[in-house]
Amino acid sequence: MDFAVGLARCPGTCGEWVQGARRGVPFLIDCPIDRFSEARVALNMHDSGWDLPLNKIKALQVLELLKENLGLPMLGGKVKFSHQLPEGKGMASSTADITAVAAAALIALGEDVAPERLAGLALRIEPSDSVMFPGITEIEHVQGHNHRLLGSSVPALFLALDWGGTIDTGMFNARPGLAEHYRRYESEIKRAHKLACEGIAQGDLEKLASAGTISAKCNLEINPKSFFEPFLSWVRQKGGLGVVTAHSGTLLAGVFPQNGLFNYDLGGNLRIEAQQLFKPAYIDLFNSHSGGIVATKMEITENTG
């Protein structure tokens, strides 16, 4: 095999339903959505360099890790991205990029693309979300020792706002005072975790949104969001069930039921009103997603670059 091409798609997140620590160990429960990082990796077995966008440093890191792990010093190629997630907002853009690139390269080589393998690679680069796993997953996102599937995604509509700026995940998780912050709110996070697990198991979005709101309020101490209280009040007035936030990002989203009484068109009207009231730099509507990667090997007959 001289050339091989793999395609992979990984969802991003609308922040995290819950993030904190249990007995001092940081963990999170991810909130996957229908926004994706898609990567096309064209491998060349006679080249050792990579052609990819200059800002995709973490994607380059995972490709170099793969070369080392697989013992393939003469492995290179070209990487193209599409449907990219906004960066630095807390939407798991880095994890999605790393995972999509790794999965595309591995499947092109005929290698296993198990979520556990992809998570291990991502966690060697930075604290990571668990979007490579199907469903909603709890993961120790810094140490990476454990993960646990909590259940299937619960249908939801998210109205997400962002007022600008970016936060680097690695720097956030290394900041002084984070461990003390987690310790101070551990009992509240325990309550949020219990509600989230019940909500996922029962398909109860109200419980899940309550968990998200508790965790988001705890996060304000270390990651303030100035419009939090007026936005939460407005969401509830409009039939929303609570909020979910990017704990190491800038995103804040209202959680609304996804059913016949509250449809996407109504969400569009709320988007217009939210834009006028809160004047965010970024606003979008997302649906919840089942999580997990999709990867495909392309059959080729010549060098596709």
Automatic annotation (TrEMBL):
GO molecular function terms noted in the UniProt entry: ATP binding; kinase activity
A Pfam family per the record: GHMP_kinases_N
Domain GHMP kinase N-terminal: 60-126
SUPFAM superfamilies: Ribosomal protein S5 domain 2-like
Keyword tRNA processing attributed: no
Keyword field: Kinase, Transferase
InterPro entries: GHMP_kinase_N_dom, Ribosomal_Su5_D2-typ_SF, Ribsml_uS5_D2-typ_fold_subgr
Stated name of the protein: Threonine kinase
